[in-house]
Design a protein that fits this description.
The complex is a heterodimer of chains A (113) and B (115). With 113 residues, chain A is mostly beta strands. In chain A, strands 2, 4, 5, 6, 9, 10 and 11 form a 7-stranded mixed β-sheet that branches. Chain A is globular, with a radius of gyration of 13 Å. With 115 residues, chain B is mainly beta. Chain B is 0% helix and 54% strand. Chain B has no helices and 12 strands. In chain B, strands 2, 5, 6, 10, 11 and 12 form a 6-stranded mixed β-sheet that branches. In chain B, a hairpin with a 6-residue loop joins strand 5 and strand 6. The chains are: A mainly beta (113), B mainly beta (115). At the A-B interface, strand 4, strand 5, strand 9 and strand 10 of A face strand 5, strand 6, strand 10 and strand 11 of B.
Chain lengths: 113, 115
């Protein structure tokens, strides 16, 4: 199994508070991704990174920011959490070659009250 | 724009029988990859199989095979000899490899295996 961890695994927060989710990999993979999973929508890409300090937006990036200061860590921040951001968040990594398989972390369940 | 369509929200299959999960895709890119993932009720995403757009042979991984029909833009997953542990959500996904990777997922098919 690919070495990907996410923290926290579960979080309950209140509307308007900032939240940071962490993805950590031990595979030295170049690409890292943040997705959210909601019923009826499958997985939707929030942001991705193609290297240290190199990030780009996905299809549902509004309200989210990311940072990658080290190869192994990719942080997702909800600047001011809203109830619509209640979701399951998955981090994924893929290898050094474009088009390689993505491997997923265990997910973080976030509830915004 | 990329799009993945899974038209079967739910399916049932008898244990030990084969089942086909449908996936159609749309992209203008010439180079792309197609994936299938399994998500059991425990929530993790498990990689099953990969097919590259230039691969001439259909991918196989144990009981999983990918029926790739490029002209029809379909990438159906075939599970042979279904087992109770195959009950799960199955997602089809596409990645394009022109420059930075862009990934699109379908909405999934829930498969239930009946004893």
């Amino acid at each position: 199994d690919a070495g990907i961890t996410q923290s926290p695994r579960h979080k309950v927060t209140e509307t308007g508070t900032p939240v940071t989710l962490r993805c950590h990999q031990t595979e030295n993979h170049r690409y890292m991704y943040w997705y959210r999973q909601d019923p009826g929508h499958g997985l939707r890409l929030i942001h991705y990174s193609y290297g240290v300090k190199d990030t780009d937006k996905g299809e549902v990036s509004d309200g989210y920011s990311v940072s990658r200061s080290k190869t192994e860590d990719f942080l997702l921040t909800l600047e001011s959490a809203t109830s619509s951001q209640t979701s399951v968040y998955f981090c994924a990594i893929s290898g050094r070659q474009a088009g390689e398989t993505q491997y997923f972390g265990p997910g973080t369940r976030l509830l915004v009250l | 724009a990329q799009k993945i369509t899974q038209t079967q929200p739910g399916m049932f299959v008898q244990e030990k029988e084969a089942v086909t999960l449908d996936c159609t895709y749309d992209t203008s890119d010439q180079s792309y990859g197609l994936f299938w993932y399994k998500q059991p009720s425990s929530g993790e995403m498990i990689f099953l199989i990969y097919q590259g757009s230039y691969d001439e042979q259909n991918a196989t991984e144990g009981r999983y095979s990918l029926n790739f029909q490029k002209a029809r833009k379909s990438a159906n997953l075939v599970i042979s000899a279904s087992q109770l542990g195959d009950s799960a959500m199955y997602f089809c996904a596409m990645i394009t490899s022109g420059g930075y990777q862009k990934v699109t997922f379908g909405t999934g098919t829930k498969l239930q295996v009946i004893p």
